[in-house]
Each structure stands twice: as C-alpha cells, then as structure tokens.
Amino acid sequence: MSNPARRAGELRKQIDRANHAYYIADDPEISDAEYDRLFRELQAIEAEHPELALFDSPTRRLGAEPATSLVKHTHRRPMLSLANAFGEEELTAWEERNARLNEDVRKGGYTTEIKIDGAAVSLTYEEGRLTVGATRGNGTVGEAITTNLQTVSDIPLVLRGAKFPALMEIRGEVYLPYKNFEKLNQERIAAGDPPLANPRNAAAGGLRQLDSADVRKRRLRMFAFQAEVIEGKLPFATQHEMLSHLEAWGFQIEPHHEVHADLAAVQKRMPHYEELLEKLPFQADGVVVKVNRRDLQEDLGVVGGREPRWAVARKFAPEVGVTRLLEININVGRTGALNPWAVLEPVELGGVTVSSATLHNGDLIAQKDIRIGDWVEVVRAGEVIPQVIGPLPAKRTGSERVFAMPEKCPACGTPAERPDDEVMTYCPNAACPGRIFEGIVHFASRDAMDIRGLGPERVRQLLDAGLIGDVSDLYHLTVDQLVKLDRFAEQSAEQLVQAIAASKAKPLSSLVFAIGIRHVGKNVAVLLARRFGTMDALESASEEEITEVPGVGPTIAQAVASFFHTLSNDRLIERLTNARLTMSEPRAIQGDGPLAGKSYVLTGILPTLSRAEAGALIEGAGGRVTGSVSKKTDAVVAGEEAGSKLEKAQALGVEVIDEAELLRRVRRQE
Ligand code: IVH
C-alpha cells in the first residue's frame, strides 16, 4: 500500500457509507465480516500513523472497553422539563400567563416541534468537538455516557462549518425508530431474552449499557432541538434559526417543525399534528410549542428552576372508545397470579383494533362495578395495554352478570388463595399447566437460569410436543428428540442441550429466582441464597427465620414458606436436585465476602433497590452501611435526587458508584 493517508481516506469513506446504509437506510450494503475487515484495516493504519487518526474517524465510533460503572456528570446548564397543556384552552391559558409578563409574546410568533419520546441527552462541544455526552439524570447531574453516544451515527463528533460558539451543550432526544425496536425485540426473543416494553425504554436502557458495542447494536438515533451556549454567542435570534443552525452543524432535526405568526395559527394546526403523531416512524408524545424569539424566551425565563415559561408540551388526550364487554377471562401468570382480562367487541382505538383489555384484579372490577355484558369505556395510551376505565350503567338492559373471581384455578382446579393484604388471587400449584408456560419462559430468562435459545416460541413448541411438562424435564431433553421438531437443525438442537446443561452450574440464587416464588425478585433471591446457603436449609426455614433476613419483609417470608409447604413444589425441587443442579451458594459470613471490611453510604433513590434491600445486600457481602460520609467511607452509592451526602463524597474525594456497580460488586464470587 503506497499511500496510507489516501488509503485511510478511502476506508473512512467506505465505512461511513456502510454505516449510513446500516443505521439510516436500514439496508446494509456489505456483510458484517467485510465491515470488520475495513474497520480493522483502518485501525491498523491509524495505529501506525497516529497523525491520520482524525478526531472524527469512524474508528472513534466503536466506543471503548466496557465500563465498570457510569460516572456522574454535572450539566453546566440545567436540563429543563416541560409543562403540559391538554387541549386548546390550556394552551390559550399558557399564552395569557406569558402575555402578563411580556405583552410582545402575542405577536412574536411560535414554533411547533414534535415532542420525541425517547431519552434526553446533553452533548458538550468544545471548539466544535464532542467532548462529553450525558444522560439527563435529575436535570442537574446526569451520567457521562460519551462512548455510548459516539456509537449513535446521528451525533457529529466534530461540528460542520465554522460559526459555532466555543463551548455549548446541545440538547436532544435519543430514540429508537419502531422498525429498529421491533427488530431488536425479535433478536432478543430469538436469543431467549425478554422483549423490551417500548422504544423509549429500549433507548434509555440502551444508553446506560456498560459495553458500548452493545449500544451500537441497538441502532439508536438522535434528533437535536436546543443549543445552550456557555462561552461565545449564538449566531441567531430565533428558535427557528436555531434549528437550521443545528442542522447545518451536522445534527438531525425532526422535519415536521413549523413557524407560526400567532397562537391562533398554532391552534389551527393541532388536528393535523394529532393525526401526524400516530403515523410517525418513532414514538412521539405531543407537540412542543415554543416562543420563537430568543430575546422573549430569555425575558420569560424559567419557573422554579425546572420548566421554561417559553415552551409547553401540547398533549393529546389518550384515545377512549366505547364497546361491549363480552366476557371476563382469567390468565394464569407465572407466579400463579390469576389475571382477569376483558374480551371486548372489537373497537378501533387510535388506528388499532382492540379486542381485549386488562382488568387488573377482582377488587377493581367490584369497585368499578364492571359487569359481563356491560358497555364500557376503554382507553389506550401510547404503548400500554388497553384498559377498561369503567362501565356505562345507563346503557344496562338488566341482562348483565356480576363477576366474581373464581374460587379454583381455571387451569388446574386447585383452590385459589388470596393472601391477606393483597388484591391478587393466586393458584398455589407450581405444577399448574396454566403457570407452566410462563414459568418455563421465566426460568430460562437471562436473569434466571440464562438458557440461551430457549425463548417463548421454543417453550411453546416443547410443551406442545409433549417433551416437557415442567422445568425439570428440560434437563432430560436429548438432541435426538429435538431434531425431530420443526425449526430444529442438528446444530441448534445441540446448542440448546448444551445451554440447558450449562445452566446446572448457576448458583442457588439464580435458581431461587428462576423457580418463580411469588415476590421473590432477583435481589431478594440473592439475599435468601446467601443467608441460607443451601436449598435444603431454605426449604426447611420457618417463616420467622426468613423474616429475620435483612431486606426480607413478612410478605416475602410468607410467600417463600408457603411455596415450600406445597407438596408439588417439593417434588419439583427433588427432580431438579436429581438432575444435579447447583443447590448451594457461598454463604455470607460477617467479615467475609466481596465487600469484607468496606464501609458504604447510601443516598438518593436507587432505580430498583429499596434502601433496606441495598443495605442488606451490602451486609450480606460482608460490608457495613453507615449513615454519614467521612474519609473512611469506601464508597457512596448514589441514586436520583442524591443530596448533601453526594456533595460531601465529592468534596472528600470518596468514590461514588451507582446501583448497577453495587450489584456487580456484591455478586462478585468470593
Ligand atoms: S425543549 C428547554 N423540544 O421532552 C426546553 N424538548 O418533557 C426543554 N423533548 O426533557 C426541552 N422533544 O427531553 C424540547 N422538540 C423538543 C422535544 C423535547 C422531546 C423532551 C426533552 C425534555 C422533555 C420534557
């Protein structure tokens, strides 16, 4: 190769083109292997000739080595949220309030922009280079996710043109187009992972992954909508010009923005937007109306440091429909919860035909007096499952029937149980066929026994073929049996048998979570396994002994004890023991464990753990939890809205970690 500079230039062009085809056009032009080859060649040239490793080289988009935790980042300007305006009147009231502060807003004009429903991010550009990318966090402090954001192809690493302020924070929304979301979920299901609930969660969760290579695979996108200048001046005077500049600098701008002379014109466009929102290729949850003139924006300012007066989110009420409730059926969940749901006469709701809706639980049905045969109002908001709001009693004919929760499980006939203080009714039989499907899917899921390749479709197939009746049968499956089924080749059959065998090595905590004891999530499972050490000890523990485990309350203790008092569950454990699954866990001994001798402080609201659970995990791993931060503190675990303890930790230079990192530390095998 004669000229490395020229070759590097060629490679960059080819890779950029391939990226565009893969991410944006969603129509890959070259194979993954070919892409990797080009990529490695470019990396090699850049390694040998560092002067050719340009800041905006696509090699920078690969991200970095997996991080062990996310680091806090303080925004130079707060990331604000928006007030809502439902309907025309509320939007008018918004202008009225502003006009009382500055009459000029009535004539200054407005922009309308799509409100993208994704994850808010802030990108710091210094002299036109992306230096930090961060999540919103609590608006003041977020988490630095720079390498993750570098994998988002819509984000320029270096700004185009020259006219940009020396230091600014670009605000935008990272989102996942519906198409990419569906693809991602198909891939997850095929790999035996649970599907993600909606594109917003997929985007937000994607951004917080520790391995940026995983982020790249999600094919996240970003629209920019705001520039906050820290040093220098913005070369424009209106919101509309800001959008044009963002575009000129290399950002993607949501194309449906408009400028309007006054609020009357904005109001007139709302029916158009309401229709448009349903048709966009990504999740959107309203229209942001903004005062166009930036001098007026500044004059109006911010309410309570949180919401700008100059912008408001115009929301549209969720779609409500009226239809007949034909029947109430019961679906048996994996923990045995009997979930009532409504069979509806099909009705159009926001472009979707709805023929079923959740009814939550028997108490709610009674409270709302929903009867079989009633005309009911049904609502569908965004991604959530349609819900029955309530009946229209005026339409009753007298032939409606009052519903009562069944006394026996509809799938297996076992008497249903309703624990004190709970609204749900349960089937207590772990061998109940209704629970089995959901239970096996859960058993195989990533956080449980992590059996790759055993997703819902495969589970259904194995059940239908009569090859399995419960989770213990998985361990007796053979390649010969599997290859006789549809969609199983020799290789996939072998892989599945191997994956099942490999799961036998999972520790007791995974198994305790996997067998689906009511109220026992993965964190509680770790607490129980560490405390009791073996399945035998846990099985024979009394309710009182279980309640003594820090972080485990009476509801959980009751559920655990009653699980093991059920004969069919005992038999299941016996079969799993005979299949030689791991039935023990390294026990937590005070002064031993991955956090032995360490002192931790908890502050703020953690995403999944309660204070008590986090404390119990730390203690279970041999550590100590103290109430205040000092130089002797080993680490502060900070969540949302962390206050003075976080500040003190930063002042003393004490390490600050998040929940994910804590979980990693306590789970580290001794
Ligand atoms: S402007 C200073 N414009 O909505 C005003 N926000 O509920 C702040 N969002 O945190 C935001 N699309 O992440 C603005 N076109 C848009 C938006 C938008 C989505 C998000 C943004 C903000 C949240 C507020």
Could you explain the architecture of this structure?
This protein is an alpha+beta fold and 670 residues long. The protein folds into five domains: 3-62, Orthogonal Bundle (Helix Hairpins), CATH 1.10.287; 74-314, 2-Layer Sandwich (D-amino Acid Aminotransferase, Chain A, domain 1), CATH 3.30.470.30; 320-395, Beta Barrel (OB fold (Dihydrolipoamide Acetyltransferase, E2P)); 428-588, 5' to 3' exonuclease, C-terminal subdomain (DNA polymerase, domain 1), CATH 1.10.150.20; 599-667, Rossmann fold, CATH 3.40.50. Helices cover 37% and strands 20% of the residues. The protein has 25 helices and 24 strands. Strand 15 and strand 16 form a beta hairpin. The longest helix has 21 residues, at 4-24. The model has no long low-confidence stretch (mean pLDDT 88). 2-(butylsulfanyl)adenosine binds at residues 80-82, 113, 115-116, 120, 173, 225-226, 288, 308, 311, 313.
Give a quick summary of the entry:
It is built from 25 helices and 24 strands. By secondary structure, the chain is of the alpha+beta class. The strands form seven sheets. The protein has a five-stranded mixed β-sheet.
Q: Layout of SSEs?
A:
Blueprint: H1 4-24, H2 32-48, E1 71-74, E2 83-86, H3 87-101, H4 105-108, E3 110-116, E4 119-126, E5 129-135, E6 141-144, H5 146-150, E7 167-175, H6 178-190, H7 199-207, H8 212-218, E8 221-231, H9 239-248, E9 258-260, H10 263-279, E10 284-291, H11 294-300, E11 302-303, E12 307-308, E13 311-315, E14 319-332, E15 338-349, E16 352-358, H12 362-367, E17 371-372, E18 375-380, E19 387-391, E20 401-402, H13 433-444, H14 456-464, H15 479-483, H16 490-502, H17 508-514, H18 522-532, H19 535-540, H20 543-547, H21 554-564, H22 567-578, E21 599-603, H23 611-620, E22 624-625, E23 635-638, H24 644-652, E24 655-657, H25 659-667
Parallel strand pairs: 2-13, 21-22, 21-23, 23-24
Antiparallel strand pairs: 1-6, 3-9, 3-10, 4-5, 4-7, 7-8, 10-13, 11-12, 14-15, 14-18, 15-16, 17-20, 18-19
Bound molecules: 2-(butylsulfanyl)adenosine.
